[in-house]
Specification:
The chain is an alpha/beta fold. It contains 15 helices and 19 strands. The strands form 4 sheets. A 7-stranded mixed sheet has the order 4-7-10-13-16-18-19, with helices on one face. A 5-stranded parallel sheet has the order 3-6-9-12-15, with no helix packed on it. Helix 4 runs antiparallel to helix 9, helix 7 packs antiparallel against helix 12 and helix 8 packs parallel to helix 12. It is elongated. The chain starts with a helix and ends with a helix.
Length: 465
Amino acid sequence: MMLRIGLRFHRTGMMATAAIAGLNGILQSLGFKAIVGNSEAARQQFGLQMQLLGRQVSYLVPLPVHPETLAGYVQWRVFGFFPLIFGFWALMAGSGVIRGDEERGLLELWLANRISRSRLTAARSGAFVIAVGGAIVVACVLTAFGANAAASPLPIDGLLANGAALLALTAACFGIALLIAQFADSRRVAAGVGAIVLLGLFLLNSFGRTLDELARVRGISPFFYYDRVNGLSPGGHVDWVSTLDLVVAALVLIVLAGFAFARRDLGSGLVRRRPVERPPVTEASRNPLLRLPVLAAIYEQRYPNATFVITGHLGFAKDNEGRWRKIVQSGPAVLEDDVEVQANACVDRASIGETRVGKGTRIDNLVQVGHGSRVGNNTLLCAQVGLAGSTEVGDNVILAGQVGVAGHCKIGDGVIATAQSGIPNDVAAGKVVSGYPAIDNKLWLRCVAVFNRLPELLKRVRGRE
């Protein structure tokens, strides 16, 4: 089942990549006949020009070998650029296979249905490899079709060798991105870090083609092993050992990613970043324009407000006759530096003391921060979160959508509450909680799995009475 789901998730990437790669292959094959010329002298001149051009773009593709032939030209212009196309797909898929499922809420559902993390990693990785194999087959078939139309058939064994090496390289890039995603705390961060790492490995191999200083360490890059497979150019060498090395590297990276996934908590990376404490700024700016009342107020707070942000200033209490009476909340509502409050959120003023939102905090749409509450630094309150009065929320806390917190509760630093959790009591620092009443996330997942089996268990119990 998970394999079929994974294939459905990868079908868009497979079709897009196959179309781009196949179109490139068929156009290059058909275009070669139009630009190479008919005489042998014209072919040799064309080959010399491509050799010179190849040295100028060696930071992108390997140096051409016999580009005066269609096979050598396709090896250079088609299979030389394929790592860029398939590497980008591997980056997006590897950073989104687990992280994307987690952010969409699918991961909790699958784990609650007793699908192990190792099985999930294996199924999603296997589905990606199958999708890549299909895209490579389409690209190779279209490239071969264009070569046949140009009356210069390509060797089948060379196409198979190149396709196998490309599949192994893409799987290795996927494994790198998947492993990095387990250390990051979001898909966006994983994609950014993965792009930097893969780009660095790509450029290390590219510049190592011409720089002797980098040629010694090219073996670190998986793209180096792909360059060692040249199945189409006349006199080209196919290094099956390099392809096998890429296969082994891909398997090791995926296994390590699965191990890291099993060790980390949902909603966080394997290694959590410690909050950075910066010294407060106590000196006012000397800019005379900031002395104007409006600009001065903006400068002191330095936070952006979306439309319809409300600061509540009224409270209610029953009088002797049981009617609700308004009580003016005279305490301030303080939003520190770099706080963002989105549409229709409400930060109530305090009746006694103050309501304070710490610096760097993000408050999403339709959030209620009750009077007298204190929200720490760099905290995220997602849409429809409700904090009852006098709630204390620590630093670097994440309260997902529709989380409710009872009044006078204390939530420690680094706590993560998953969507629709109800928190009636204090939560210790670093905990990941779910459900109502909120309990440890791992225990909640087991409870959900048991809950789905309650009708069956009840039937068994009644059958034994």
